[in-house]
Design a protein that fits this description.
This protein has 224 residues and is an alpha+beta fold. The protein contains six helices and ten strands; from the N terminus they run αβββααβββαβαβββα. The longest helix is centred in the N-terminal third of the chain and has 20 residues.
Length: 224
């Protein structure tokens, strides 16, 4: 996975090129990797997903406003949007203003300096993207359950059952046109029609039980 250091290096290169094009002046960039910083109450954070990480870039209000003024001097525009759009352009990745900053208190600081101007400090943190939460159903999805295909049922006297031998015929309570039942752990989950697939018996599903379990189970009476 791409490291925070390599992301920072590429970002500074793009950041410098953009600043030169937008301001016409060559800035000095000083980076301080692995710095400890405070989460200031006035900090504005922007975030995007890049290279398998969630990137946060933040600056206190005086710093992001100063950068917006450099990018659009004297223009009557929304400084907040100027700053956020510049960050998006510098990363080449779609992002948005973050409701809150990163969880980590450590990151990289970047000081942008121009002649006769106080340095503008930006903070960058690259956090690993959290793994998607697995639902309760997802946790159970690998459990194997016995599945039974039932063509029909029959009731026999014990004497008749004992008389069964090779060649005997047992008649079920279902017609050949009736659907077969698919059961899981003895519960009907679907109905279908018998088919042959590459020499094997199979069932083509024609109805899934869902909320209709009761109606399916109750409909299995022999037709007149």
């Amino acid at each position: 996975m791409t490291s925070q250091s390599s992301i920072l290096t590429r970002w500074i290169r793009r950041l410098t090129d953009l600043l030169v094009r937008r301001t016409g002046a060559e800035p000095t960039i000083r980076r301080n990797p692995g710095a400890l910083f405070e989460h200031h109450a006035t900090a504005l954070w922007w975030r995007c997903d890049l290279a398998g990480k969630t990137i946060f870039v933040g600056a206190t209000e005086d710093h992001w406003r100063a950068l917006a003024e450099l990018l659009a001097p004297g223009e009557d525009c929304d400084a907040r949007q100027v700053y956020l759009q510049f960050l998006e352009e510098s990363f080449g990745s779609r992002g948005a203003e973050a409701d809150q900053g990163p969880a980590s208190a450590y990151g990289d600081t970047v000081d942008i300096g121009f002649a006769d101007a106080a340095p503008i400090r930006l903070q960058l943190v690259a956090e690993a993207k959290p793994a998607p939460a697995q639902s309760a159903i997802g946790c159970l999805s690998e459990i194997e359950l016995p599945l039974t295909i039932r063509l029909g049922k029959a009731r026999m006297l014990l004497g008749d059952l004992l008389a069964v031998k090779a060649g005997s015929t047992i008649v079920s309570d279902r017609y050949i046109t009736d659907p077969v039942e698919i059961l899981v752990n003895g519960k009907i989950v679907a109905q279908g029609e018998a088919v042959v697939v590459q020499g094997n018996y199979g069932v083509r599903i024609i109805e899934v039980a869902g909320d209709r379990n009761d109606s399916i189970a109750g409909s299995q009476e022999k037709k007149p």
